[in-house]
Specification:
Chain lengths: 428, 162
């Protein structure tokens, strides 16, 4: 019944500004829509600089999730009753919204998962594993998150294949020429981050994808840190698979997306078995549903997916060019101010960066720094950021990381700097 | 800011900056490694355990054996470094039974509920860590050296906070 998705709405539900364009980006108007921003931590106004870990959520996303449980609470793709029809329409509507967000050709290319990690694992087992032989290679980069390393190691271990990292330089810039040299007949997949979570580097994904395509090698892009700083166009990137998580794009936790070219998805066998992913089941054998449902076994995170749809509506209703410019202004101010702090070293100085700044401060361990900053109301992350190879590459056990979203302000950059001064004074 | 000073007391800052007994013990006969995979803290603890006054062999009657010397190396935050540094001072010359009792007391202090006064009797300088329990994310920093010590006394290997 649900092999074909409902027809896509003809008009965008986002509120248009004058002449159909969104109103010019206004950070205070955006902040007013995000309840979690408006609280105190240890008696200080919250300065939330950990959006690369998870973004805070706008009211419309919270309301959309609440509406599922308070009104449209039903399973999807099953019932003929009104609640189930409403839930199914909203769920499949979210799939169309993701298609639009990613510039994909077809909503059937959008598979809902638990997150980026599960999306990558799905490709590892369903796409790569049957094609992988002893001696084969998966080409990654030195700046990958563990989620784009370990799934490949697990499938490689099954057959005696290996994961090969392409090098980055001391700024955190991918050496594309070296990657090109590592691309060979043994390479069965290139898997790289669009944007590094630890360094902020934006990789030249289109360039890498063109190299890989010329070598006949498919490309998976870990887009978890890229979509929040979009726009992303998977067709323009020229990749084969693209994964991201809802919770980093102002949506709920527990939902992610795998976008894959339809021809790949149609050729892939199921990964997890269960309800919804089958066409027929008998004890003699079963047949599989079409993509994307083939890869969505069991009752999905219905409220989460619908919340993601609300987040996409919200995002696409903003002046995104203005938001990007604002984020880049935050990055420039933070980079400039932090580089003036004595004993502070920024880890990740690529010329093209998203609004993520990793750093270490001489004499103050990142973990201590994060505790002191927290007492000033400033939330940053300290640790290896699930990127231990990156930490090793830069010779540090850990970094502190300030990551900025479109709802942060220049004043908050100044608050970060004041808090760092407190830490320096305490440890002087 | 006052509770932050509870955590970062002068003694902790001092031992964090200039850890005591930092290095290796060439004549060690016990050692273990401690890691906190979340924050990257890493330490290696070396012990020299010798027979106690009653002549018992180390291992044969572990309770009466004596920690003659101790050293650690590694990298970590101020809390974990200071905890390792103060640990070395606290256990040197004590019997294994005394060290195990001390471990239990430190562990109780670090994990005690925050609504009761901390039990610090007999802990000496280690009482400086009584404020750590107010910072749940940092309890593992302070306890890592102690878990590593326990592992070393039990025969070695790797202690992990996770």
């Amino acid at each position: 019944m649900k092999a074909t998705a409902p027809r896509e709405p003809a008009t965008s539900p986002a509120t248009p500004g004058p002449h159909g364009a969104p109103p010019a980006f206004d950070v205070e108007a955006v902040r007013a829509q995000i309840p979690a921003l408006h609280q105190e931590v240890h008696g200080k106004p919250l300065v939330y600089l950990d959006s690369a870990a998870t973004s805070l959520k706008p009211r419309c996303v919270i309301d959309a999730v609440e509406r599922v449980y308070a009104r449209d609470c039903a399973n999807v793709h099953r019932g003929v009753h009104a609640l189930s029809e409403r839930a199914t329409a909203a769920f499949e509507g979210a799939r169309h919204k993701v298609r639009r967000l990613l510039g994909a050709a077809d909503s059937r290319e959008v598979v809902f998962t638990r997150g980026t990690t599960e999306a990558i694992n799905l490709v590892a087992w369903s796409f790569l594993r049957p094609r992988l032989r002893a001696g084969d290679e998966v080409l990654v980069t030195e700046l990958e998150h563990h989620a784009n390393i370990v799934p490949w190691q697990l499938v490689c271990a099954e057959v005696g294949a290996r994961v090969v990292p392409a090098p980055i330089d001391d700024r955190g810039v991918l050496d594309v020429a070296a990657l090109g040299r590592l691309l060979g007949p043994r390479t069965k997949l290139v898997a790289l981050a669009h944007t590094s979570n630890a360094l902020g580097t934006v990789n030249p994904v289109a360039e890498v994808a063109a190299l890989a395509r010329a070598a006949g090698v498919p490309v998976l892009v870990d887009g978890a840190q890229a979509v929040p700083h979009g726009p992303v166009d998977v067709q323009a990137l020229g990749c084969d698979f693209f994964a991201f998580s809802a919770h980093k794009v102002y949506g709920p936790t527990g939902v992610g997306v795998l976008w894959g070219k339809l021809a790949h998805l149609e050729a892939m066998g199921p990964w997890q078995g269960g309800g919804d992913m089958i066409r027929t089941v008998s004890f003699e054998g079963s047949t599989w549903n079409d993509p994307p449902h083939r890869f969505e076994a069991g009752t999905p995170n219905i409220a989460g997916v619908i919340g993601l749809g609300a987040a996409i509506d919200w995002l696409l209703g903003l002046d995104l060019a203005g938001a990007r410019a604002h984020e880049q202004a935050l990055l420039a101010r933070a980079t400039d101010a932090l580089s003036r702090v004595p004993g502070l070293r920024i880890v990740g100085t690529a010329p093209g960066k998203a609004s993520v700044v990793g750093f270490v401060l001489e004499g103050v361990h990142p973990h201590d720094l994060a505790t002191i900053l927290d007492h000033e109301g400033v939330a940053v992350r300290a640790g290896h950021h699930c990127a231990q190879p990156v930490m090793r590459r830069f010779g540090v056990p850990a970094t502190a990381r300030a990551s900025f979203a479109l709802y942060n302000t220049l004043d908050e950059v100044d608050a970060l700097l004041r808090a760092i001064e407190r830490a320096r004074a305490l440890f002087a | 800011m006052s509770d932050l000073r509870e955590l970062y007391q002068e003694l902790i800052l001092d031992h964090g900056r200039r850890p005591r007994s930092f290095g290796e013990l060439p004549d060690r006969n016990r050692e273990a490694e401690g890691v906190n995979p979340l924050c990257g803290d890493h330490l290696v603890l070396h012990l020299r355990v010798e027979p106690g006054p009653d002549g018992s062999e180390p291992g044969a009657a572990p309770g009466s054996a004596v920690v003659r010397d101790v050293a650690f190396k590694g990298s970590g935050c101020a809390i974990s470094t200071a905890s390792a540094s103060l640990l070395t001072g606290a256990i040197k010359g004590k019997t294994v039974a005394e060290v195990e009792a001390l471990f239990a007391r430190v562990h109780a202090m670090l994990t005690a509920p925050t609504d009761v006064a901390p039990e610090t009797e007999g802990l000496g300088k280690l009482a400086v860590f009584s404020g750590v329990r107010e910072f749940p994310a940092r309890v593992k920093c302070a306890s890592l050296p102690w878990h590593t010590l326990k592992r070393a006394l039990e025969g070695g290997g790797k202690a992990s906070t996770e």
